Amino acid sequence: MAKLPKFTLIHNNSMGGWDLKKDKTNSTIKHFETKEDAIAGGVLKNAIGGQGSVKIKKMDNSYQEERTYPKSEDPKKSKG
Q1: How many CB atoms lie within 10 A of CB 71?
Q2: What does each of the 80 residues of the chain score in pLDDT, given as a tens digit?
Q3: Plot region of 21 (φ>0 → left; ψ -120 to 50 → alpha; else → beta)
Q4: Are the C-beta atoms of 5 and 22 separated by less than 8 Å?
Q5: CB contact at 8 A, 38 and 9
Q6: Are strands 52-57 and 6-11 parallel, antiparallel or unpaired?
Q7: Which residue in 5, 21, 55, 75 has a CA-CA distance of 20 to 30 Å to 43?
Q8: Rounded distance, CA 48 to CA 61, Å?
Q9: Burial grade of 54 (CB within 10 A; 0-12, 13-18, 19 or more)
């Protein structure tokens, strides 16, 4: 299995809204006004180019969930 690119959806405290960041470079890939805009439909999947792992954080910076695209690349041993 190839290593998937890793991303994090995190609240932007200074500007408001939510940033999708590439973990390796900590660069913002896309900014969303609301978390709902980011996680609706296939928005995250499209923002990362259809392949990768996205950790979604809560406002308090704790982890809410992790999504893997495509789903077939999800590790079989994970609980999610």
Answers
A1: 8
A2: 568 999 999 999 999 999 999 999 999 999 999 999 999 988 999 999 999 999 999 999 999 999 999 877 777 665 65
A3: beta
A4: yes
A5: yes
A6: parallel
A7: 75
A8: 21
A9: buried
